[in-house]
Structures are given as structure tokens and as C-alpha cells.
Design a protein that fits this description.
It is built from 3 helices and 5 strands. With 135 residues, the protein is α/β, with parallel strands linked by helices.
């Protein structure tokens, strides 16, 4: 079975948001240990609506972080999307439940389907984090 790829032009602004892990390897800190950066992006505009850090010691977002991420997303246009697209392997069940409680339909997709959306932000983050950002 082939997987269809999604593209930004298939969506209207705030129709769907995408949740994804922005970093490709855990981000080390001396004080707080390693963490991952979870991003929330509008599917049509590819605008990053917010991010939240999750310790690699924890398997999941805290409920506070899930609520805050959705609140930050809503703050941009004062509206929630009708859909939240989540890569199947990403452990964000707390966020999915919170989204559903706010009337958002959660759709699990393969990460490959989201590459047209998430490749550029990941690459930019990687360059910025490694100190290679454009100046």
C-alpha cells in the first residue's frame, strides 16, 4: 500500500495543525539533562505556532504542556483547527486527548507524509542549534 504525501496547498490556514519533533537528536543541557523539542505548526502556512520541551526521561508531554501548546497555537488567530495531524510514532497521547477534548479531530499519519512540512524547519533548527545559522 503506497502512502500519499500531504502538501501545504491542500489546507486552509488553521484548518489543520501538525505536531512533530523538531530535533533529530536529544538536546543536551548541563542543568536539566537531555530534552526534545515538540513543535506545533499550521499546515497551510507552515508557521510554527509554538514549541514545548520534553525531557528524554519522560515518555510523554505533561498535561500542562499539552494545554499550553494548544493555547499558544490558538493565540495567533483566536481559533483552533478542525484537525491535528500527528506522526504515528510520536508519543503525544496526552496532547491528542487534550485536542479531542477541545473538539479537534486527531489524525495519525506517517512521518513520511509530513516531510514537505517538517523538513525545512528541522533543517533550519539543526543549522541554528549547531551554530551554522545564516548571519
Amino acid at each position: 500500500m503506497s502512502t500519499f504525501v500531504l502538501y501545504p496547498n491542500q489546507f486552509q490556514v488553521n484548518e489543520a495543525w501538525i505536531v512533530f519533533k523538531l530535533n533529530d537528536a536529544p538536546i543536551p543541557t548541563a542543568a536539566d539533562g537531555d530534552f526534545n523539542l515538540i513543535a506545533l505548526m499550521d499546515a497551510a502556512s507552515c508557521f510554527i505556532l509554538g514549541t514545548v520541551t520534553v525531557s528524554t526521561d519522560k515518555a510523554e508531554l505533561a498535561i500542562f504542556d499539552a494545554k499550553q501548546l494548544l493555547k499558544n497555537g490558538k493565540a495567533h488567530k483566536q481559533v483552533l483547527p478542525s484537525k491535528l495531524l500527528i506522526p504515528k510514532h510520536l508519543p503525544v497521547g496526552v496532547l491528542a486527548k487534550e485536542a479531542e477534548s477541545q473538539g479537534i479531530t486527531v489524525v495519525y499519519v506517517s512521518e513520511k507524509q509530513l516531510l514537505p512540512f517538517i523538513d525545512d524547519p528541522r533543517e533550519h533548527f539543526k543549522k541554528s542549534f549547531n551554530g551554522d545559522s545564516l548571519q
